[in-house]
Amino acid sequence: MRPAAESRHGTTSRSRYRVSVGFTLLELLIVLAVVAMATAVVVPIAGRWLTAAQERAWRGDLKVRLLELPVMAFARGRPIELDADALRAFLPSFPAELELHLSAPLHYGATGVASGGIVEVYRPRERRPIARWQVEPVSGDVTP
Prior knowledge:
By secondary structure, this protein is α+β, with helices and mostly antiparallel strands. The chain has helices spanning 13-16, 25-76, 84-89; strands spanning 80-82, 99-102, 106-108, 117-122, 131-135, 142-143.
């Protein structure tokens, strides 16, 4: 009987076949190329997603702030009047590059009654608003 380390031809299996441990340089380069391509696809999508999430956040914040103004006037027991600059100062998350336009200053009486008006948000040098809300007279409800 032959020893277990020898093959049929009398040579040991270790000297005849090389045992490879690890990855070749080509395999590593292929993996890096695949990762780079996946990153190139994902990064722009993530950037657009982040921009859209930030826009949803300031839109929601603006609407909530407009809805709480009648309550604030009533709770304080005195009227509140806001022009575009005062409304912008009231909104810390509002992007600085956007323009805020009001059809007239927003007035809320001491009883919480609203004068009504239109709030519009524009990008610089654009004619169409990117967001528009109608503040209903009396109730102060905000509708798109």
